[in-house]
Amino acid sequence: MSLRREMRPLAVLATMFALLNGGPYGLEEVVPRAGPGLALLVLSLMAFVWAVPYALVVAELVSVMPAEGGIYQWFRASLGPFWAFQFSILDWITWVLEAALYPPLVAAYLVGSFSHHPSRWLTWGVGLLVIWGCTWLNIRGVKEVGWLSIAISVVVLVPLAGIVVLGWNRVGLATLGPWIPEGESPSTALNYALIWSLWSYSGYGALASASEEIVAPERTYPRALAIFLPLSLATFVLPLLVALGVSPAWRQWENGQFNQVALLLGGGWLLACNVAAVQISTVGMFNSELLVVSRVPFAMARDRQLPPFLRHGTPVRILVLAAILFSLLTFFFDFLQLLVVGTWLALPTYLLTFACPIILRWRNPDTRGPFRIPGGWPVLLAITLVPSSIALYVLLTIEWKLLVIGLCFAGAIPVMYALSRWQTRQPASTPR
């Protein structure tokens, strides 16, 4: 069943913002661990050594292969159906774990506004309302998701703009010291800053999973990335600079610090706007990530890599199955467990994404889309080498306990492949 192209450029940009940015909320925790100077320096540098190369690679891949399923289609064309299945399911698992972070956060903020010690059942129940409400919205189709993302982006950007404008006169170099927190080793501080920056600037290929629902994706997606990247850098760095000037006691920072900054700068009205922005951006990120979670299995089912009953509608059945999975994950696992395992599992898929344009150019040198990274092979290799080195470093320095958990997830994927082949009773399709 074909999908309708309803997502236009503004909706693509807004959904990208809601999915991958949502403002600087949550970044407050890196400052006490990495130090304000190092945190801002790494966050700024990673925009150029990680985010820009990543955006260029994704722009070329979407331009040459604007097909539903996004990253699955790139892996399939580069490595064939077997390895495409392994890495696409791995990528899907990371997005499921990532998306499952947000309903409990919404519930905690909302219920916590009325009760200091809410019951676990009440918090989980509110989270279920978020899960199933956003699932219903995605079943309606991407047009509704796009309009909601536009509204979310406006609501998030307004209080951030207020914070930056009202507090810009508080910014100064003195607020950036010391570069390393007292008692913290330079390597530990660097790792904290690096991991948080990596998380902040990742996932640029996610919305490509809905390429067949985007108007002219081969042109729209690269242009949206070109606007999104500097906007993302500004929404991370500028509010943090202001926050350090307004609230210099950064050693005591924790999640919610921007509420205090908003209160000190603009009083109750800016605080209310910021609280609303946090809630709405969290819902928006979950709602947008449902788009990614549902479209990759949908594309794989169309290629008979997954059972054919998943090929239906927008796709409805995958969305319902995902909602059931989120409901279980949010009951049995806490925020930190989902975050750490999901981030580590994403790194192999990033490495393969950086390799995809190299493999595709080598196999099909004459195939190109409206956008291609200029400069030929030297520039392409240089652009992919630096972020690949960063991903390898983080991948290999993970704690062994988390490594075991990650390998357990990865080890289940070949079993899923065998079960899927048995269910479909068809040989895996080959790249066209």
Give structural notes.
This protein is mainly alpha-helical and about 425 residues long. It has a single domain (about 10-425), classed as Amino acid/polyamine transporter I (Up-down Bundle). Helix content is about 75%, strand content about 0%.
CATH classification class: Mainly Alpha
Terminal residue distance? 19 Å
H/E element order = HHHHHHHHHHHHHHHH
Radius of gyration: 21 Å
Q: What's the pLDDT, averaged over the residues?
A: 78
Per DSSP, the total helix count is 16
For this structure, what is the CATH homologous superfamily? Answer: Amino acid/polyamine transporter I
Secondary structure: number of strands: 0
Share in helix? over 70%
Strand content: under 5%
Judging by the overall fold, what is the CATH architecture? Up-down Bundle
Summing up helix and strand content along with how strands pair, one would put the structural category as: mainly alpha
Question: Mind describing the biggest β-sheet?
Answer: none
Low-confidence stretches: 427-432
Summed up:
This protein is mostly helical and 432 residues long.
Can you give keywords for this protein?
single chain; 432 residues; mainly alpha; Amino acid/polyamine transporter I; disordered C terminus
